[in-house]
Amino acid sequence: MFDIGFSELLVIATVALIVMGPERLPQTVRSISLWVGRLKQMVASARKDFEQEVGMDDIRQQLHNEKIMRDLSQTKQDLQQTLDATALEAASIEETIKSPLDAMTALDKKPSETKPDSTKTAADE
């Protein structure tokens, strides 16, 4: 806010010491500090009153809620994409497993159809 460096403050303190003298300087510094403190209190009070009138708490809460809703929406989209990808992967794995299983089942059916005839002749003897 103020562009005052240490060297400028040192010059101001030196001038104040020369003008006021060492007897009145501590009392003056206390008075100035008191006024600065009161000014800060008034500014803080005015700011608080202004925020209450405008409804800053409600606005902050609404903005916070909107941010949470955006985050939830993004999370929902991410989860949906993950579920879709998982479903596709599961279908692919199922197809991969099903093809050899169907082939094995077909092979098992062919010998079993011929086996009962050969077992009958062996059982009949």
UniProtKB/TrEMBL annotation:
Name of the featured protein: Sec-independent protein translocase protein TatB
Keywords assigned by UniProt, alphabetized: Cell membrane, Coiled coil, Membrane, Protein transport, Translocation, Transmembrane, Transmembrane helix, Transport
Topology within the bilayer: Single-pass membrane protein
Residue ranges with Basic and acidic residues bias: 107-125
InterPro entries xrefs: TatA/B/E, TatB
The UniProt record lists the keyword Plastid: no
Lineage: Bacteria, Pseudomonadati, Pseudomonadota, Gammaproteobacteria, Cellvibrionales
Underlying gene: tatB
Species, as recorded: SAR92 clade bacterium H455
Keyword Transmembrane attached: yes
